[in-house]
Design goal:
By secondary structure, the protein is α/β, with parallel strands linked by helices. The protein contains six helices and four strands. The mean pLDDT is 87.
C-alpha cells in the first residue's frame, strides 16, 4: 500500500490517522520542481490518494503516469468535492464523480464533528447556495453580521474571548 497526499500537512494527518507511512504526491513520485513528470513509479498493489479535491489535472496526470506500467494496481481517490479546490487547472475529483467512470462511495456519517453539531448543516446550506439557518441553541457555530471593514477587529475580539477561556486555539475555525 502506498499513501499519498497533495501537501505535507495532509500527508502527516494521513500517516497519523492510518498508522502507516504517507508522503506528498510530489515526493512519492519523485517529481522535480517545475516538472509534471514522475521519476518514480508505483509498484504497490494499492495506491490511496487523500485530499484529491486539491489535485489539479497536472498532478492526476503524474499519478496516472506513475501507475501506467502497473497492471495490478488498485487506485483509490479520497476527498470531498466541496472542499479545497485545486490551485492548478481542473476540478478532477468532481469531474470523476460526475462522469460515472469510477465506483464512488459517499460517506453518510460525518466524523469531524459531534453528531449534535450544526457545522455540517451550515456547510450543506452554503454548498447548495442557500443562506445558513443557525438555530439559537447552536453552541459550536455562530454568525456575526458586520461590515467587511470590521471583519479583522471582530475576528480578533472573538479569538481573544476564546483564548481567555483557555480553549485550545487549534480547536477554533474561522
Amino acid at each position: 500500500v502506498k499513501l499519498l497526499s497533495p501537501t505535507g500537512k495532509a500527508a502527516r494527518v494521513l500517516a497519523e490517522k492510518s498508522g502507516e507511512f504517507a508522503e506528498t504526491i510530489h515526493r512519492g513520485l519523485g517529481m522535480i520542481p517545475g516538472s509534471i513528470s514522475p521519476t518514480k513509479f508505483i509498484s504497490e498493489d494499492l495506491l490511496i490518494v487523500d485530499e484529491t479535491s486539491m489535485c489539479g489535472i497536472d498532478t492526476i496526470h503524474a499519478i496516472v503516469e506513475a501507475i501506467r506500467k502497473n497492471e495490478n494496481i488498485n487506485l483509490v481517490f479520497v476527498g470531498d468535492p466541496q472542499q479545497l479546490p485545486s490551485v492548478s487547472p481542473g476540478n478532477v475529483l468532481y469531474d470523476i464523480i460526475q462522469s460515472n467512470c469510477a465506483n464512488v462511495i459517499k460517506l453518510n456519517r460525518i466524523y469531524r464533528q459531534d453528531s449534535g453539531s450544526f457545522i455540517p448543516v451550515v456547510a450543506d446550506c452554503i454548498a447548495k447556495g442557500e443562506p445558513p439557518m443557525i438555530p439559537s441553541g447552536a453552541k459550536d457555530i455562530c454568525v456575526k453580521e458586520c461590515d467587511p471593514s470590521d471583519v479583522i477587529g471582530l475576528v480578533t475580539k472573538m479569538l481573544s474571548t476564546y483564548m481567555d477561556k483557555e480553549l485550545d486555539i487549534n480547536e477554533i475555525q474561522v
